[in-house]
Amino acid sequence: MAQTHRDIDSNLNTFLKLNGCSTALSFVAGDASPRTYYRVSSEAESRILMISEDEKSKNDSFLKIAKILKAEGFRAPQIYAEDFQNGFYLLEDLGDLTFNRALQEGISEKDLYQLGIKGLIEIHNKFQDNSHEIPSYNFDKFYEEASLLIDWYAPEVLKKPVPEEARNSYKSLWKNLYDAQPHLPQTLVLRDYMVDNLMWIPEEIDIQKLGILDFQDALWGPITYDLVSLLEEVRRDVDPHIVQKMLEIYLTAYPYFNVDDFYHSYYLWGAQRNSKIIGIFMRLAKRDGKTRYIDFIPRVWRLLENDLNHPALTTMKNWFEENLPTHLRVRPL
């Protein structure tokens, strides 16, 4: 269950008081990750308390990327105070209208996704060389994530571990696909650029309407990854016409891209990401008891199957047909 109450221990009490904040916490968000968020009041305005006690390296990355984004003019939350040792952070409050909530309140899906695409174009224009020395999205990381499917999902539906030969071929095929990917520009990849992590700030103008959250896993990698995150949404169905329109808008900004290479990369990273997410959702259900994530798995399979239909991914499509055929891609619990 999501943590909706937090006992105020002496360290947190001291942190809040030192920074002029009330010790009354109002739960905002937290579930799939170890981080939880609360709204607290200060003398001037409300702020967000992020508690992230067990991910010190990711906290360091969060602070670094937030400062980089702010310096480049993006609406990442301002960081007002930090207690790195205890994992307490006071952040700017960007409101309650995540893209997901804005959609529920009737804000145009097209307008929201168009703002999200505009944000990516701005990010990709700003970050064209890795002067900030952001870690690279190398094959080890790529495969570590893709392997979550055979570590968590496959054993559950097969009722046994994936055979060693199948594991080896799975890794070998991903390596071949990774090595054969088109040489498109690389950029800052936020990696969770999706409707629950993007904010609609209606009182602002232009790109400042877009609030950006949850970027502690950022890497330096392909321009297509965050497009996949946004448009292959695993928690809701996106209108296919809007998906196509958004890809056209993006490509219009880069008329010198080879379109075939672009879609090759888009579907490759889509397949990798969706394989990862199927594994993560099963892990959340089995290890952490968060069984509602099982409900999302059939949608993620549909997205993955669509990715695998790209001709460049035929070898991986064949692996899935041989080792995890269609009847094993249903709601597994």
Written account of the structure:
The protein is of the alpha+beta class. It folds into two domains: 10-92, Phosphorylase Kinase, domain 1, CATH 3.30.200; 99-328, Aminoglycoside phosphotransferase (APH), C-terminal lobe (Aminoglycoside 3'-phosphotransferase, Chain: A, domain 2, Alpha-Beta Complex). It has twelve helices and nine strands. It is globular, with a radius of gyration of 20 Å. Mean pLDDT is 92; it is low at 1-5. It holds the Pfam family APH. InterPro entries: Aminoglycoside_PTrfase, Kinase-like_dom_sf. It comes from Candidatus Bealeia paramacronuclearis. This is Phosphotransferase enzyme family protein. Residues 26-255 form the Aminoglycoside phosphotransferase domain.
Order of helices and strands: HEEEHEEHHHHHEEEEHHHHH
Q: What order do the strands of the largest sheet run in, or round the barrel if closed? A: 1-2-3-5-4
Number of domains: 2
Distance between the termini: 18 Å
CATH architecture of the largest domain: Alpha-Beta Complex
CATH H-level superfamily of the largest domain: Aminoglycoside phosphotransferase (APH), C-terminal lobe
Mean model confidence by pLDDT: 92
The count of strands amounts to 9
Shape: globular
How many DSSP H or I helices? 12
Uncertain spans, ≥5 residues at pLDDT below 50?
1-5
Helix fraction, binned, reads 40-55%
Question: What's the CATH topology name of the largest domain?
Answer: Aminoglycoside 3'-phosphotransferase, Chain: A, domain 2
Major β-sheet, in short? 5 strands, antiparallel
Structural class by SSE content: alpha+beta
Radius of gyration: 20 Å
Strand content: 5-15%
Q: Mind telling me the CATH class of the largest domain?
A: Alpha Beta
